[in-house]
């Protein structure tokens, strides 16, 4: 092999290696995107369906006083309620009892596995007033002007597209409908939850008001969580 041939061959190898490295870097950027932020808040990763047993843990009632939260919602028989980010249905099943046979609960999640667990639980209990919807990260596929209440329990902080989701929720509410938002209190360091999965009242208001909502009620009697109620502002 001549000197010129060796030089050409080595140069070709360098070009191929550079192209491979560029491809690898691009793949890593796609697989591991930079953390998203909204109004200065880092958005948490959505809880995977393999963590579903934690939602049904025996200690949850003691830690969060779920029955007190349900009482604060003031749900009436016959209402139409949405459990958005329902997971495997911890609250969905309880809401179905509260709205009664004349009411309806729409359960929305982006993971079909979660909805499958909820479907199995509802069938086992003979509950028939639950409708399941598989949403996306930008569209919960909720019908317009339908809901008396949309419940979000420890899930809003995981929305990867908060503005789009808040717009979709807003159009799904009846004119007098409300959002009930429960989030772990960032202001309380004794709440044993990772900071990324907490929110402060100030941050919540910072995000909700510009998106067409007004705060109508605050319930401060839960052990670990804020419970804040929002109505839609007519534009």
UniProtKB/TrEMBL annotation:
Alphabetically ordered keywords of this record: Methyltransferase, Transferase, Ubiquinone
Domain (Methyltransferase) ranges: 76-189
One annotated GO biological process: methylation
EC class: transferase
Domain of life: Bacteria
InterPro entries assigned: Methyltranfer_dom, SAM-dependent_MTases_sf
Metal-binding recorded as keyword: no
A GO MF label: demethylmenaquinone methyltransferase activity
EC id: 2.1.1.163
The name this protein goes by in its record: Ubiquinone/menaquinone biosynthesis C-methyltransferase UbiE
Annotated source species: Bythopirellula goksoeyrii
Organism placement in taxonomy: Bacteria, Pseudomonadati, Planctomycetota, Planctomycetia, Pirellulales
Gene label: ubiE_2
């Amino acid at each position: 092999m001549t000197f010129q041939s060796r030089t050409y061959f080595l140069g070709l190898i360098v070009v191929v290696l550079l192209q491979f490295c560029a491809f690898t870097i691009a793949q890593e950027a796609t697989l591991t995107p930079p953390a998203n932020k909204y109004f200065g808040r880092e958005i948490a990763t959505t809880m995977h369906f393999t963590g579903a047993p934690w939602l049904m843990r025996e200690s949850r009632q003691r830690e969060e006083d779920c029955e007190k939260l349900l009482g604060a919602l003031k749900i009436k028989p016959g209402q139409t309620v949405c459990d958005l980010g329902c997971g495997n249905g911890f609250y969905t099943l309880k809401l179905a009892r509260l709205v009664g046979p004349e009411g309806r609960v729409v359960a929305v999640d982006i993971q079909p596995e979660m909805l499958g667990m909820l479907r199995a639980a509802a069938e086992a209990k003979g509950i028939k007033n639950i409708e399941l919807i598989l949403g996306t990260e930008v569209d919960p596929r909720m019908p317009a002007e339908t809901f008396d209440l949309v419940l979000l329990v420890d899930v809003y902080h995981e929305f990867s597209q908060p503005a789009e989701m808040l717009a979709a929720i807003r159009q799904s509410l009846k004119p007098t409908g409300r959002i009930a938002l429960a989030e772990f209190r960032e202001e309380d360091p004794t709440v044993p939850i990772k900071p990324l999965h907490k929110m402060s009242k100030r941050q919540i208001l910072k995000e909700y008001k510009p998106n067409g909502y007004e705060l109508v009620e605050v319930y401060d009697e839960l052990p670990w969580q804020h419970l804040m109620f929002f109505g839609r502002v007519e534009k």
